[in-house]
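As a next step, the fold was encoded as tokens, giving this record:
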Amino acid sequence: MSPLAPALPPHLVQLGFDYILAVESGDDVQAARLAPEVEQLSGLLPGIAELIVFPVTALSDDADPCADSFVLDEVGVIYLMAIRAWATHAPAAAAPGIARTIAHFVGQVLADAPKDVVRALQELRDEQVERARAAHCADGARW
């Protein structure tokens, strides 16, 4: 879990990923249906970005830090800060661009091949929704 963003409830994790998937797959009808809710929650897409980017770029406790790991950590922080600023200053206009930026990151860093972006996003969505459920159930919430 990223220390930068508060834990998102499962339904918001689902909403954020569903919007990103709709934008990435070119489903304009679904993206338009989800857009008003996503745009009202200016921190949602930056929070989703943190769920994806932070585990990949943050300094690991498992390995000895080196110059490259510090650079990767800083690049991740800058990337996330830029997304958060973009969402803060133009929430409605930024949502599709942030969704495409997140999908691009997944395609370049996490997907087995660029054409596997949708599959990788679906896997990330399922994993992160389950983590959010577990975290919220541990806090006493019921989903």
User: Anything to note?
Assistant: Residues 78 and 84 are 10 Å apart (CA to CA). The radius of gyration is 15 Å.
